[in-house]
Design a protein that fits this description.
The protein is of the alpha+beta class and 216 residues long. It has 7 helices and 11 strands. Helix content is 31%, strand content 28%.
Length: 216
Amino acid sequence: MVYQLDDELWFPDPHQADEDGCLAVGGDLSVDRLLLAYQHGIFPWFAFRYNDIIWYCPHQRFVIFPNEIHISHSMRTLMNKDIYRVSFNEDFEGVINNCSSLRIKEEYAWLGPDMIEAYTELYRQGFAASVEVWEKDGCREKLVGGLYGVNIGSAFFGESMFSLVPSGSKLALIHLAQVMQELNGSLIDCQLETPHLKSMGGRFIDYDEYMRIINK
């Protein structure tokens, strides 16, 4: 069953999501609603040109545990070359705008202006974070990869990543996992399975286990 949200701040029981994970439509992208959503494993995902806000909560969650991140031989070689610099929260807007621009021409693109504004406000209030990958360009640096997501407690809820150089987004994800290991981070929520994320250690856990970890 898919629920219709109103102006009140609430979500239905996430266990009521349909087989595809679709739970509700409507509502808004306010900071308070987004925080309530992520605390229950719910996230917005919709084609911004055509749809109202659609909220998802898959029954099986694709996650990466920081201590299970897989670093291939080729990635270790790349990291040892010290070609790129990786930073945190130096250019959130640059990351989210690059994530959007690479897909914005697609008919069913989801990272539109309203989503960008909403997550940028989350960042301003300290609930979102970015990882940037920089390449030297003469005397300057240029942004060539990165990712962003929501950070609540010890969990990181990944939203999107981009890469303008080979393995740029992988490098950002590896550094995120390594820092989370140092800080006793619990998990990285990948939302959706991709071959890229599976190759780096992503695996499924059920929703109840996921929530037990989040609630810690």
